[in-house]
Amino acid sequence: MSAQQPVQRALLWMLAWIARYRYIKFGIVGASGTVVNLVMLHIGHEYLFHSIEAAYKKPYASLALAIMLATINNFTWNRLWTWSDRVRTMEHGRTSAHVNLRLLGTEFGQYVTASSFGSAVQYFLTLLLSGYMDYRIANVIAILSASVGNFLANDRWTFRRRSRH
Fold first, then answer.
1. How far apart are CA 64 and CA 79, in angstroms?
2. Sign of the alpha-carbon torsion through 123, 128, 131, 134
3. Is residue 83 scored above 60 in pLDDT?
4. Distance CA 110, CA 103 (A)
């Protein structure tokens, strides 16, 4: 028996355990969104919008861009992984490979609406805290503050369980 087999079994067990807990998946997706958010916040603030934002020392435009791109990232991965068992494209006998753009747009609209309160909390809390600490640390604190509400709103509305008719 090779040493690789116990490691493989442990890894498979861990992946199966994560798959059973939707909030952990949501957290992993959120972590990827946080990376997208922080990278775009830094690029936007330090390079893209530097001439606009330098005078204020607040990341207004770059924060809006970072939140928008992180929202698209999170919607995509939450739809494909976190709530893959609940996506609407499965309705009416469609396969998961077939994507109805109208339904996808509706789901994205619901996701953005459900996440908008958390995004607003993140935006304003980041701006508030960035007066007292580095804007990147302020942004991470704000993201964590908004995550539970975002999960509940999307679990109960955007990707809610649908009755089968």
1. 22
2. negative
3. yes
4. 10
CB 152 within 8 A of CB 76: no
Mean pLDDT for the stretch of residues 73-94: 79
User: What DSSP string describes 41-83?
Assistant: HHHIIIIISHHHHTTTTS-HHHHHHHHHHHHHHHHHHIIIIIT
pLDDT tens track for 103-127: 889 899 999 998 888 888 888 999 9
Compute the residue count for the chain.
165
Q: What is the DSSP letter of 86?
A: G
Query: Phi first, then psi: what are they for 96, rounded to 5°?
Result: -65, -20
CA distance 121 to 3: 48
pLDDT confidence bin for 30, thresholds 50/70/90: very high
